[in-house]
Amino acid sequence: xxxxxxxxxxxxxxxxVAIEAVELAAIEVELADIEHCCLHGQPVPAMEPGxxxxxxxxxxxxxxxxxxxxxxxxxxSTLYDDLVQRLREPxxxxxxxxxxxxxxxxxxxxxxxxxxxxxxxVEDADxxxxxxxxxxxxxxxxxxxLQTAYTEAVSMVHIHLHEHRGRPRFSRTDLRENALFAPDxxxxxxxxxHGAVVFSFDSAVGQCWIPxxxxxxxxEVAIVGSPMRCTWKVTNG
Length: 237
Hints:
Blueprint: H1 3-39, E1 70-76, H2 77-87, E2 98-107, E3 111-121, H3 139-152, E4 155-161, H4 172-186, E5 194-199, E6 204-209, E7 217-218, E8 220-224, E9 229-231
Parallel strand pairs: 1-3, 1-8, 4-5
Antiparallel strand pairs: 2-3, 2-4, 5-6, 6-7, 8-9
């Protein structure tokens, strides 16, 4: 490739990087606004013109027919650090902690976005002493999570942490329980997607249940302000 061709290619790359930087900066501002509203019990702000928009029919996860949509969970690095700190706190009898991310669903041209704005914490008293699982949420804990989904009109993403590096995996128990809890939230927020993600120290895998879809989709996780980005493809079994 001659010098002119190389310079032209570099110019295209630089332009793409600049556009991505602008988009990431806009997402950081939007996530900060969502976090602030969740912390102070305020309605989430409306999206700016040109940003990712809810579907016109009010269903935030309905894409055009035949479209291949990616599902992306986005959260700020500040929220991620707070989440991991909470999940690592010891419990009297539970081997691990769980939490829910409160997310606003939206559609971009090619993706279903779950914009995380806050953490719904499962309180100590809402765990059940169940040696067969690392953590089991009691009825009171599930009722509180359902109430949050209803009153705040958010998608709920169940979160737990595997304390190791490398790609985590859902256990068989995780997969079974994941499939059971999504319909509970649909009873209160039937048009919203809900999901589950397990983090390791440097990776994550996830599932998302979208209304009208017969099986869960994989979830990409994007932490704004951090380079971590991963995708888990759903397979049978």
